[in-house]
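Incident log, structure service

09:12 report received: a user says their structure output differs between two submissions of the same chain.
09:20 pulled the input from the user's history:
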Amino acid sequence: MPGCNHSHSHEAAASAANPGFRKVLWIALIANAAMFFLEIGASWQAGSVSLLADSLDFGGDAANYALSLFVLGMALQTRAKAALLKGVSMGLYGVGVLGFGLYAAFNGEVPSYTTMGVVGVLALGVNVGVAALQYRYRNGDSNMRSVWLCSRNDAIGNLAVLGAAVLVGVTQAAWPDLVVAALMASLGLSASVSVIRQARGELRGEPPRAVDAHGHSH
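09:34 re-ran on a clean worker, output below:
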């Protein structure tokens, strides 16, 4: 009903201006930037495509958090444009990871499952902590939703990396690493579609709405 949408719009605007949300973004920015530098080095050492995908995701998320902080408190249209940019970057990430995976399928080696496991546990701890902090803000405007989707996808990706590390150790083959990289790419593409769809609606003047994991508004 119109009244419900109007109320939710006010709630989303209030959440976006909430100092607590700003603090959460700063924590997420610092944590993701640190993990990007740590994990990108580990990915090359381990020869792991899934770790490389995760490190690029950390770097992209750090940039997205910085952009979210910049537009925080601005007009909904401005925040929607920022979310649209982030949605496109998520899509590019997904396509890029698929490209790396195809290259590794023909030219890569069996990755180091020990390094994958150790770094995967550390990354999972960081992402679960950040996602827990962001959970209460997951149903705001498209800019806030893109922040939540970044952390949610990261936590899922880390669990998958740990699973791949176990399977690589058992099979002594690279295919589990490549499968997980493809999964992470699909998560990025799915989140891209969801965020872009909501951001375009807000640019047309639609109020922020709660959106589920598949991009359907309620």
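09:41 both user submissions now match this output. Likely a transient worker issue. Closing.
09:42 reviewer note: The CA atoms of residues 6 and 207 lie 7 Å apart. The helical segments are 2-16, 19-46, 49-71, 76-107, 113-134, 142-171, 175-203.
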